[in-house]
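Researcher: We plan to redesign the surface later, but first we want a full-length starting point. C-alpha cells attached.
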C-alpha cells in the first residue's frame, strides 16, 4: 500500500516487543508512582480532588493527558526516524551493528534483574518543564521533557527499541516501532486519566510488585539482546509468515 512495505519479515515480532516494552516502561518504578501527581499537575487540580474522582476533575485531566502523550510520542517518533536513518547509513555493517547493540541491551537487562548494578542507570535526569500546569500546551511541553529527560527507567527499554529500529532497513518501519512503543507507554497513561479513581487503586497495588516488574523488564531486555545477536527476530518473522501467509498481504 502506497509503496511502503510495513509488514515484512522482521516487523511483527519487533512490534510486539516494542508494545510490551512500552507497557513495562509505564509500570517501571520511576514512572508509575508519578502518574497521579503528573495528572493532577497537568489538570491544574489538587491530589485530594484527584483521589475523590470527581467528574469535573476527571474532565480537566483528560485533554492534558492526551497532549502529554502526544508530546512524548513526538520525541519517540523523531528518535525512531533518526535511529533508522543511522542504521541505513551503516547498512553494510548491519550484522555487526546488530551484535554490538544486542550485547549492550543484554548488559542493561542483567542490570535490571540484579546480577550487577550500573551506577549511571540508578541516577535520574529530569528536564524541568517550568510552571506549565493546567493547560494542554503545558502538558505537551511536559511530554517532550519527559521523553527527552527521564532516566533510567525508560532509557534502557527505549534503547532496546531504538536498537531494533536501527537494524531496520526502512525509515518508515523503524519509525513505526517507536510509534508502537509510544502506544504501549501512552495508552495506559490515557486509561489512567479516563478511569482515574479505579486506576489509582490499581497503581497502589502494583507498587508492591516493583521488584518483579523491574526483573520482568530485565528479562525482556535480555531476550531482545539475544534476538539481535542471533537474528532470532527474523527467524520468528519468517515462521509467522509460513504459518499465517495472509500476513504477507498486509502493508
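Model: Full-length starting sequence:
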Amino acid at each position: 500500500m502506497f509503496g511502503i512495505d510495513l509488514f515484512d519479515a522482521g516487523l511483527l515480532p519487533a512490534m510486539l516487543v516494542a508494545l510490551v516494552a512500552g507497557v513495562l516502561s509505564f509500570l517501571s518504578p520511576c514512572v508509575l508512582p508519578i502518574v497521579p501527581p503528573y495528572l493532577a499537575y497537568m489538570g491544574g487540580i489538587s491530589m485530594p480532588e484527584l483521589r475523590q474522582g470527581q467528574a469535573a476533575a476527571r474532565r480537566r485531566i483528560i485533554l492534558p493527558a492526551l497532549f502529554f502523550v502526544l508530546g512524548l510520542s513526538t520525541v519517540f517518533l523523531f528518535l525512531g526516524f533518526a535511529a533508522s536513518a543511522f542504521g541505513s547509513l551503516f547498512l553494510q555493517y548491519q550484522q555487526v551493528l546488530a551484535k554490538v547493540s544486542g550485547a549492550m541491551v543484554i548488559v542493561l537487562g542483567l542490570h535490571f534483574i540484579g546480577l550487577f548494578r550500573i551506577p549511571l542507570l540508578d541516577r535520574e535526569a529530569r528536564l524541568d518543564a517550568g510552571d506549565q500546569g493546567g493547560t494542554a500546551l503545558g502538558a505537551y511541553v511536559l511530554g517532550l521533557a519527559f521523553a527527552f529527560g527521564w532516566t533510567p527507567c525508560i532509557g534502557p527499554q527505549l534503547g532496546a527499541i531504538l536498537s531494533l529500529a536501527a537494524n531496520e532497513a526502512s525509515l518508515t518501519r523503524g519509525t513505526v516501532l517507536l510509534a508502537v512503543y509510544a502506544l504501549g507507554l501512552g495508552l495506559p497513561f490515557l486509561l489512567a486519566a479516563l478511569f482515574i479513581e479505579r486506576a489509582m487503586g490499581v497503581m497502589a497495588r502494583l507498587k508492591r510488585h516493583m521488584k518483579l516488574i523491574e526483573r520482568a523488564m530485565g528479562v525482556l531486555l535480555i531476550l531482545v539482546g539475544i534476538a539481535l545477536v542471533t537474528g532470532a527476530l527474523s527467524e520468528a518473522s519468517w515462521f509467522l509468515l509460513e504459518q499465517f501467509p495472509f500476513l504477507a498481504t498486509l502493508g
